[in-house]
Amino acid sequence: FWRYFCNLLSNFKRFHGRAFNDSFVQKEKEKLSYDLVPMKNGGVGVKVMYMDEEHIFSVEQISAMLLTKLKETAESNLKKPVTDCVISVLGTAFDPFLGGRNFDGKLVDYFCAEIKSKYKLDPKAKVRALLRLYQECEKLKKLMSSNSTDIPLNIECFMNDTDVSGKMNRSQFEELCADLLQRIEMPLLSLMEQTQLKVEDVTAVEIVGGATRIPAVKERIAKFFGKDVSTTLNADEAIARGCALQCAILSPAFKVREFSVTDATPFPISLLWNTEAEDTEGVHEVFSKNHAAPFSKVLTFYRKGPFELEAFYSDPNEVPYPESKIGRYVIQNVAAQKDGEKSKVKVKVRVNTHGIFSVSTASMVEPVKSEESEDVGVETEVESQDQRPIENSSDKNIQQENSEAGTQSQVQTDGQQASQSPPSSEPPSEENKIPDVKKTNEKKGDQPPEAKKPKIKVKNVELPIEANLVWQLGKDLLNMYIETEGKMIMQDKLEKERNDAKNAVEEYVYEFRDKLSGPYEKFVCEKDLRGFSALLTETEGWLYEEGEDEAKQVYVNKLEDLKKLGTPIEMRYQEAEERPKLLEELEHRLQYYATIAGEFRNKDEKYIHIDEMEMMKVEKCVSEVVEWMNNAVSAQAKKSLDQDPAVHSSEIKGKLQELNNVCEPVVTQPKPKVDSPKEENPLNEQSDYKTEDMGDDDKNSEKPQQNGECHPSDQNTISMDLD
After folding, report:
1. Which among 7, 63, 436, 509 would be 20 to 30 A from 646, CA to CA?
2. Molecular function (GO) terms listed (predicted)?
């Protein structure tokens, strides 16, 4: 670990969506074991050593590598490919700078100052020392959660071969973290406000996460809700269990109890656009805070040419990142109508199931001539003059088609039309309202019939959208990253194979050397033992010197050289272990077949049916195998253990198989069956009478019945007491 700590990457997800010159990045940079560097696009990059060369990877690349590794781990355990996953993302109400790492940081800062004054050492000057201090402070924090007494902190050879020590108790820790503890209440207040609940409405509170185990944190949460908090869930597994449940809900392979989760958009999203006069801007909040997601809305614009929409978070102060812009979307190929009037353009905006905003589609409504009215893509519209734009919009040429209670829905959720949308501050456009049926009927008698409005046939023309998202990777850059990761995966595979080959040599050296002084000792002569032991020692030294970083094939060849001497020794040992057992088994089978042959000669009833010529084959085979076995045992007795065996286990297995193939079919021949004389049925004369008397019941009796089923006409009814 300490050898490669500069390549150990952690806590990098906080740098997503931030520029390198962000004040937060610069502050966190001092606490990391690895180097942060700026990327060409202004983002955050990481400098690491890969394949003994210095490389710079973006935070996005590092995150992709982590997900790839997690995918490989999951596939290895599941023994099947993984194509989809669920990732937990914090939402609703949270403080991104209030967590276990922030409490650790307080301890680190305290002990850094103490070590500096007490030992004249600066832990922040050396990354390795700072990492060790972070580890020890995390352990100290956990111990203080279960003990109120003074807890010692001791680190040997901390810096310059100097041992350092210190101590702290829970009360000191709480005083040190007072400012962090005061911030606990704000996310809780925000949570209750957003969910529109009162403390009294909460039945139970379950807290998860490492920092929630700190007694002071638990006390403040319990005090806020006015009830004890529960910590029954495993803090490390709770989030994973939630993700697993969501996976089961989404997967067609599992059937779970009806359980729905309504996600929400944590930050309000607005759209900004220029009017055609170019002197004013229109702005409209399309998704309010905590709006249900996934959700879609359709906005209607009136334009004579292409126009641009800018999406951004309405309240930059709420967003935990300095950049509040989402992106710019250019609606292309918009043109005026043939009479010079503005065209009606429908733009569909959407927050998908992942909480990602997009301008998904755009279409231009064009009137159709009468001869084109039979085309497939033609729609019929009622011309209405009382359509009016969104009231809080400064652009008079936009309308929103939104679903509200009591209005006709034109908002789509997940590709299906929704019956209702969450409460929204924007009033629906007039074209969506459904007239009150009762009031309409009352007025029918008082008013003359209205003239029918002329119908206009129109068609929708899909428009291309050019999206330029903030911090989104360009296609060329993304393809380059994918290609780079593919090469790295292949290189990692080759490196793993190389390391496996090296480890195989190292394992063979250690394992065989131990066995040469143990079970293999009797199976190698003194001369060969000395030579082979010397070669093993030489190979061990080579592995840690000039052979430390060789190609895969070099290690493969080295292992083959070792096996040329080791395999014969291993073979002698295995033969000595297996040979006696196989000879004993062969002897038992010979005795078995010889006994049967003797019983046959003695006219035993069990074998009298066997043909004599067949039995002679058995006797001949037994005789030949006995002779072979005696010769083999005699030859092997003349050999020492460190010499190759005179007879191998494979030969004994072959003789055993040969013996069984010849003898077993003969001795297991079944006796011929003897037919017994048939008895006459004295009741045959009465069969006609019985058949006539039983009638249909006879037919029923032939039908198979299930176990335990009694026929209703049976006289011999069985009475049972069932518990």
Report:
1. 509
2. ATP binding; ATP-dependent protein folding chaperone
Phi, psi of 284 (to 5 degrees): -155, 135
Per the listing, tokens 């700190």 go with 214
The pLDDT assigned to 452 comes to 59
Tokens of 76: 């290895």
Domain 473-668: state its class.
mainly alpha
- Residues linked to residue 58 through DSSP beta bridges, in sequence order: 45
Q: Is the pLDDT of residue 698 over 80?
A: no
In three state form, how does the secondary structure of 249-274 look? HHCCCCCCCCCCCCEEECCCEEEEEE
Distance CA 644, CA 689 (A): 87
**What average pLDDT does the chain have?**
82
Give the largest CA-CA distance in the chain. Answer: 128
C-beta neighbour count of 621 within 10 angstroms? 19
Q: How far is CA 157 from CA 108, 113, 129, 164, 231, in A?
A: 17, 18, 10, 8, 38
Residue 575 scores a pLDDT above 90? yes
The CATH number of domain 5-78 is 3.40.50.2300: no
Mean pLDDT of 591-610: 91
Question: Token pair of 263, please?
Answer: 């996600």
Domain edges within the chain: 5-78, 100-225, 266-438+454-469, 473-668
The structural architecture, per CATH, of the domain 100-225 is Alpha-Beta Complex (3.90)
Buried b (16+ CB within 10 A) or exposed e, 189-219: eeebeeeeeeeeeeeebebbebbbbbebbbe
Alpha-carbon distances, residue 363 vs 250, 398, 460, 498, 602 (angstroms): 32, 14, 6, 57, 103
Going by C-alpha positions, the residue among 31, 57, 27, 29 that lies closest to residue 45 is 57
- Of 101-115, 282-296, 435-449, 556-570, which range is least confident? 435-449
Whether residue 381 is predicted with pLDDT greater than 60 in this model: the reply is no
Contacts for 151 with CB less than 8 Å, ≥ 6 apart:
140, 143, 144, 167, 168, 169
pLDDT for the residue numbered 242: 85
Residue that the structure tokens 């049925």 belong to: 681
Closest by CA position to 98, among listed 240, 230, 211, 237 = 211
Closest CA to 666 of 626, 613, 587: 613
Q: CATH for 266-438+454-469, among 2.60.120.230, 1.10.1200.10, 2.60.40.10, 2.60.34.10?
A: 2.60.34.10
Q: Predicted confidence band at 514 (pLDDT cuts at 50, 70, 90)?
A: very high
Average of per-residue pLDDT across 559-565: 94
Q: What residues form DSSP beta bridges with 380?
A: 457
Question: Can you tell me the mean pLDDT for 429-447?
Answer: 43
